[in-house]
Design goal:
Radius of gyration: 35 Å
Strand content: 5-15%
Strand order of the largest sheet: 10-9-8-11-12-13-18-22-21
Number of domains: 3
Largest sheet: 9 strands, mixed
Helix content: 40-55%
Oligomer: single chain
Number of strands: 22
CATH superfamily of the largest domain: NAD(P)-binding Rossmann-like Domain
CATH architecture of the largest domain: 3-Layer(aba) Sandwich
Structural class: alpha/beta
């Protein structure tokens, strides 16, 4: 029997059969309408005599409207709400035509209605009901037969709103997998204990007990504006009971406005690490950017490209995107053209270490605001190449800052790093030296030189998260340097808006420190990424500890020991109070350090760096000898 049903559903019924079946349903609806109208008693003689004409009239109009609207061409097992609406409108239009013919016959011939008005209305309701119900029944029977032999996948849904309901219906209608939605969860206490399509709505406090009881394979998060704390609570419980967590994409990304199971995506680690949306002073930022020429160095990098996209929203006079990375710069160009077709921007290929190229850029574009994001940032790589670190991070920053001063820009904003605090590596020390040089240029009557300092940015080029993801895709192992190593993280968008806010509020000479939240253990980060992938840490994906790399330290800091902070009007931005610097001495030592590049003597170069930054103590490095 099952094989026969399976064969039947695999083949489309000929369209002419569907057409005839629809007309038979209409005849049945009309006959039933007469019986209902006359209370299943004897039909009056006049109405009984008119019945052949009645049936001819209704059947003819229905046959014409069904054929003209191609109602019979729809595949019944895929009937949707749009199809149901279409059937309703076709039947309604036919009923209007029937009543119109009825009226014409009364006026010009019979002086009596062929069909009583009540029968026209009853037939319309019955025909609509039967045509839609039969199709929905056939669809339900089809999916039931498809899922009969499939194992049921138990699902919990968090979010009992419209998105949750649509998600349930999408799961119910998936032809490839048999999903069984068990229960809804929602934070809204008004929905607690209600039922939606027969399923109970429970508070999130019941989640763990229900996970124990039903052992679902999947939990689906449907709200779009769920804070990170709630996401973490849900996912931690699901991890505990080995339940996969997926989320529903925003409505604007649904394909042709329709949701499908394939669009349900696993949570990313960024979803768990992100923080609540930051409030910024839109008016202050707009006044600093709108109508101004903005130069961004390192524009093709993670932070540079984020700043470019965010500046574009405030309608600058012109954006100048400066970088030496050809392909990423080309990609940024197309992203900006797509997102902001009216934006006036220029892509400039060049190196911040090339004074002639920079001079031409400043002379030609005359920027009002400079965001200096160009830098080398990989700690182990710079530890083995100190001279290149000096050439880019120190000389490059010096040249851009010098030209900013020479051409009288309004503001110069340097993007620095938490690794510049009590540096233990060449990269961090080079960024601290760049900070010091930029601060040394601050004068009351010149450009405002501002430094922003923050930690790791989620998903940035070369960061730990893309590397872990690639290792998971390859089947592991995930490599972590140390079980206790921690890092600060923030999203790219968060970093970008805080840089804009700090640049607008700065009066010159400050080092703005961003609130990075709590540090994250990298080993825990790796475990969560494995669990989010639906795998089990140490069983399906191994974690290997490789030891600290040259220059790497266990814990990053945002302020040096000798520093303190002052609050600003923004709770996420603090001002770091650093030790007083002698500007002329700093500039002299920086020039001496840059000249040392020609020697290519790494020990000599690093020793000069340590004299500039006394708190620089090497760790796990060949340069430890200079600290003894």
């Amino acid at each position: 029997m099952y094989n026969y049903i399976n064969w039947f559903w695999k083949h489309n019924t000929p369209r002419w059969i569907i057409y005839i079946m629809d007309l038979i349903l209409v005849l049945g609806a009309l006959a039933l309408a007469f019986l209902i109208r006359f209370d299943f008693n004897n039909i009056p003689d006049q109405d009984f005599k008119n019945m052949p004409l009645d049936f001819t009239l209704v059947l003819g109009i229905r046959a014409f409207s069904f054929y003209w609207s191609k109602l019979y061409k729809g595949v019944i097992r895929y009937t949707s709400s749009k199809d149901a609406l279409r059937i309703f409108l076709v039947v309604f239009s036919g009923s209007i035509l029937i009543e119109s013919v009825n009226l014409v016959l009364w006026l010009y011939q019979l002086k009596t209605f062929v069909l009583p008005h009540s029968i026209v209305i009853i037939e319309f309701l019955l025909s609509s009901f039967l045509l839609i119900t039969i199709r929905m029944f056939a669809k339900a029977t089809y999916y039931q037969s498809k899922s009969h032999h499939l194992k049921k996948t138990k699902v919990f849904i968090f979010g009992a709103g419209e998105s949750g309901l649509l998600s349930k219906r999408t799961l119910d209608g998936d032809p490839n997998t048999s999903y069984q939605v068990i229960v809804f969860f929602d934070d809204d206490i008004k929905k607690n204990q209600l039922r939606i399509e027969g399923l109970q709505v429970l508070s999130l406090q019941r989640l763990e007990s229900m996970l124990k009881k039903h052992k679902p394979e999947l939990l689906l998060i449907t709200p779009q504006q769920l804070n990170s704390e709630r996401k973490q609570y849900i996912t931690e419980l699901c991890f505990k009971y080995h339940v996969r967590v997926l989320h529903v994409p925003p409505v604007h990304s649904w394909i042709n406005g329709q949701l499908s199971v394939k669009q349900f995506k696993p949570l990313k680690i960024e979803d768990l690490l992100e923080r609540d949306a930051i409030r910024i002073d839109e008016i202050q930022i707009r006044s600093a950017i709108t109508g101004k020429t903005i130069l961004i160095t390192g524009a093709a990098g993670s932070i540079g490209s984020t700043l470019a996209m965010q500046c574009a929203k405030y309608q600058p006079q012109q954006l100048v995107l400066f970088d030496q990375a050809e392909s990423p710069l080309y990609e940024l160009e197309w992203n900006l053209k797509s997102a902001y077709p009216q934006l006036n921007f220029e892509v400039v290929l060049g190196d911040v270490r090339n004074a002639n190229r920079l001079n031409r850029v400043f002379e030609f574009f005359k920027p009002h605001l400079v965001f200096h994001a160009a830098a080398y940032k990989h700690v182990p790589l710079m530890e083995h190449n100190p001279s290149e670190s000096i050439l880019t991070n120190v000389l490059g920053s010096k040249l851009v800052a010098d030209f900013a001063k020479q051409f009288g820009v309004e503001r110069f904003v340097m993007i620095s790093t938490d690794k510049a605090v009590n540096p233990t590596n060449v990269m961090g020390a080079s960024k601290r030296i760049a900070e010091m040089y930029v601060q040394s240029l601050q004068r009351s009557d010149g450009p405002k030189f501002i430094t922003t300092r923050f930690g790791n940015v989620l998903g940035s080029n070369g960061s730990v998260i893309p590397r872990f993801q690639k290792q998971i895709e390859q089947g592991g192992p995930i490599t972590v340097t140390h079980p206790e190593i921690t890092r600060f993280f923030m999203t790219m968008d968060e970093a970008g808006v805080l840089v804009l806010e700090a640049s607008a509020m700065g009066s010159g000479g400050e080092i703005f420190v961003f609130d990075m939240g709590k540090p994250v253990r990298i080993a825990e980060l790796a475990k969560k990424m494995i669990l989010l992938s639906g795998l089990i840490p140490e069983t399906e994906i191994q974690i290997q500890y490789t030891g600290l790399r040259p220059g790497e330290k266990l814990y990053e800091e945002l302020l040096a020991n000798e520093e303190n902070t002052l609050p600003t009007h923004h709770p996420k931005i603090l001002i770091g109070k650093t030790r007083t610097l002698d500007a002329s001495s700093v500039q002299h030592q920086v020039n001496e350090l840059i000249q040392a590049f020609e020697t290519q003597n790494n020990l000599h170069i690093v020793s000069l760096m340590k004299s500039l930054v006394p708190e620089y103590i090497s760790m796990n490095s060949e340069f430890n000898v200079l600290d003894k």
